[in-house]
Write a structure and sequence with these properties.
It is a single chain. The chain is mainly α. The protein has helices at 23-38, 64-85, 96-99, 119-135; strands spanning 7-10, 45-50, 93-95. A 3-stranded parallel β-sheet has the order 1-2-3, with helices on both faces. β1 (7-10), α1 and β2 form a beta-alpha-beta unit.
Length: 143
């Protein structure tokens, strides 16, 4: 990595729910990538973001319960575990998983198919990211 960002936002997980998915490998790789980003020469301010939830109504029923378990239970807890290991505080954690409905995905109107965000969902996610960046002093509003 030769980039020199001031800020980095990391979100991984939604599509990492295949049958071969392994929680230990996910955690190890997530921690390694986040550490590499955090230790770039520019020392970017790292924000860790959980991925949105998956609805029980998403797609076909093949492996659905396994995918729901991975996306809605394992990945959010592993992402938080990595954030804790890296001392990423709540001010630098963007919890899209719970903000957008959590395990029960109560905010179905933010999704086009139970997994992928629609325009309203993307706008809402962007507003949450904006608020975290603003609150951390990375965005100044001028008149």
């Amino acid at each position: 990595m030769e980039s020199t960002p001031d800020v980095a936002i990391m979100m991984i997980g939604t599509n990492d729910n295949q049958e071969w998915w392994n929680p230990e490998i996910f955690e190890r790789d997530y921690l390694e990538l986040a550490s590499r980003i955090k230790n770039l020469t520019s020392k970017p301010d790292l924000f860790i973001m959980t991925s949105p939830p998956m609805s029980p109504t998403y797609g076909n029923k093949t492996h659905l319960s396994q995918k729901l378990h991975i996306v809605n239970e394992l990945i959010p807890s592993l992402v938080q575990k990595v954030a804790n290991q890296l001392n990423v505080d709540s001010a630098h954690t963007i919890d899209l998983f719970n903000i957008m409905g959590g395990q029960n995905q109560r905010n179905e109107e933010l999704f086009c198919d139970g997994l992928h965000m629609n325009l309203a969902g993307n706008t809402y996610a962007a507003s949450q990211i904006f608020l975290k960046l603003r609150d951390a002093g990375h965005i100044e509003l001028t008149k």
